[in-house]
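Aim 2 progress update. The chain analyzed this quarter is reproduced below.
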Amino acid sequence: MAKRLFDLLGAALALLLLAPLLLGVALWIRLDSPGPVFYRQERVGRHGVPFRIHKFRTMQAGAAGLPLTVGADPRITRAGHFLRRTRLDELPQFIDVLLGRMSLVGPRPEVPRYVAHYPAALRERALAVRPGMTDPASLAFIDESKRLAAAADPEREYIEVILPAKLRCAADYAEHASLATDLRVLWQTLRALLRQA
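Predicted structure tokens:
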């Protein structure tokens, strides 16, 4: 209950304070390339319930291909490169937090394609809590795109190396999460993003 109240207050305050920035980013996206401002993608939420996540669009409208970003992906727009590097493309997920589909902190929601690879022993634990905008695994793999770019087979590297490590982090978070750990993760995320900018 305390976590949900924290999420609601945090997301509402963030949307209020960041409204000018969100409007500015939306305008930039519209001017930079044709297509919608938002990108909606199906993700797997708490207890395996699917939902459509909100993100600012960073790729060319209608871009096809793997649901992974590998290095300097040619599908990414000019504005998209900056939005991804600074993680500004993730800000619309405060809407998903308000709607109760996500939390400020929790395991990042995965696409069904990769949830299918979750081992049974970790699946239930990883999906026991609301997915979040950030979590310890996000911090540990903040350079994920570069790691994948260096792999001979990026998707295989993701499924066999990165995904299992993320799942272990998710299961550990689900078992030991508290308001104190959430505050620490939020602070660490802010510091990491400032270094990335």
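The chain has a mean pLDDT of 91. The chain is about 55% helix and 10% strand. These observations will guide the mutagenesis experiments scheduled for the next reporting period.
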